[in-house]
């Protein structure tokens, strides 16, 4: 199943918990974009040079855990699970995620991972999963929450940064990202789940219920 949404809507945490509840695998596509940005920063490559990013992507070796209980991100032999969450990486990703060739390369990688998954299903989350990467997924959800709720959730996580700074960074990143793909409006056939008034457990429950309802409908041919 495919889940998209803006930063702080709960995509990663909710998708991982829903995958665990369903016995599905879980793919954090944003972590792959982050890992590529980390790798370019590490190699001293100018992220604002698309040709350099495309060239460097050819030798980018990524390993990502798709079991909800065993999540990790590695680039070559280096574990970057925590490093890719650092603000310097978060702020750098937008330069590469707007490059169509980079997106095509990562989309191909996501599709290989989806095909190779041994679980009965996989929850894939990001910005363009419902529309591009897995537009044929049996269940597609746009997870939203008010800007206020999303900022409050993020600043609770990033306790070393002020709420104002977190809020401004989140807003500017969403703006940059939404110029590349539209994840603010649900495409045809995509269900919108607004988590503003739901707590974490209620949101996970709602996602699991949607999967049960949609898959029952499909197996009954409706
Ligand atoms: N419905 C919810 N209610 C309250 N907190 C939530 C909810 N959904 C997610 N969170 C919390 O908000 C934070 C950000 O969620 P995250 O999954 O990182 O969002 P995203 O991947 O969309 O950026 C996490 O700490 C998560 O536990
Ligand atoms: N499918 C995706 C996923 C992420 N991204 C990019 O990767 C960045 C990080 O994604 P993320 O999902 O880890 O970000 P959060 O919403 O969790 O903060 C986004 O800001 C986008 O620029 C993308 O372009 N397409």
Automatic annotation (TrEMBL):
Where's the Cytidylate kinase domain?
2-212
Q: Known InterPro entries for this protein? A: Cytidylate_kin, Cytidylate_kinase_dom, P-loop_NTPase
Q: Which reaction is this enzyme known to catalyze?
A: dCMP + ATP = dCDP + ADP; CMP + ATP = CDP + ADP
Record flagged with keyword ATP-binding: yes
Q: Enzyme class, one word? A: transferase
Carries keyword Cytoplasm?
yes
Q: What is its EC number?
A: 2.7.4.25
A GO molecular-function annotation: kinase activity
- Listed SUPFAM superfamilies: P-loop containing nucleoside triphosphate hydrolases (SSF52540)
Spell out the subcellular localization from the entry: Cytoplasm
Q: Which residues bind ATP?
A: 5-13
**HAMAP family from the UniProt entry:** Cytidyl_kinase_type1
Q: Which family does it belong to?
A: Belongs to the cytidylate kinase family. Type 1 subfamily.
What name has this protein been given in UniProt?
Cytidylate kinase
| Organism listed in the record | Agreia bicolorata
Query: Source gene?
Result: cmk
